[in-house]
Design brief:
The chain is globular, with a radius of gyration of 17 Å. The N and C termini lie far apart (52 Å). It is mainly alpha-helical. It contains 9 helices and no strands. Pfam families: TetR_N.
């Protein structure tokens, strides 16, 4: 029997939750696929069907959390704009993931965050062509650079203060406000 997309997404998200829980106990490299899938109450074959690495599981989990946040805050309404309010909402999302981000940074797996940003911002196949593809990549890297600096500073600024920083930067760069 074929699973529904919602069921599949749920099982994949459960693996992400389980992996994050296990990472609080031991390094990612010491976590076996069997441990992760057992904790998630998912078969090993489900992992191998959908993922190539544990890092992909972590990126997928961040993407799921983004989707839930977007459903609550309607961030996708700003899609394709350079509106600084979108930046503030995005930074609120990042702050809501502070415990996960801190865990990924502490274990040297912050690249999973960048991978998630790339997935979140990547246009659908055939949407916008080459320019949209490169624009999404540049945006993902810019956001990661901004969030990376914010995390390394210990989230000293609020999302509102970070929005102001983005506005000032855009103004200085000759961009829109």
């Amino acid at each position: 029997m074929r699973r529904s997309t919602a069921t599949t997404e749920y099982l994949k998200e459960c693996m992400g939750t389980a992996l994050l829980e296990l990472m609080r106990e031991k390094p990612l490299e010491k976590i076996s696929i069997e441990e992760m899938t057992a904790r998630a109450d998912v078969g090993r074959s489900t992992y191998f069907r959908y993922f190539k690495s544990k890092e992909e599981v972590l990126s997928f989990k961040i993407c799921c959390l983004w989707k839930h946040f977007d459903e609550e805050k309607y961030i996708s309404a700003y899609s394709g704009t350079d509106d600084p309010v979108a930046a503030r909402l995005f930074l609120e999302f990042c702050l809501s993931l502070r415990d996960i981000s801190d865990l990924l940074y502490a274990t040297g797996h912050q690249n999973c965050i960048l991978d998630a940003y790339l997935q979140i911002l990547r246009p659908a196949e055939g949407d916008g062509g080459l320019l949209a593809y490169y624009h999404s990549s540049m945006t993902a890297y810019a956001l990661f650079g901004l969030v990376n600096a914010w995390i390394l500073r210990g989230y000293q600024e609020s999302p509102e203060e970070m929005e102001r920083i983005v506005r000032d930067w855009l103004k200085d760069a000759g961009g829109k406000e």
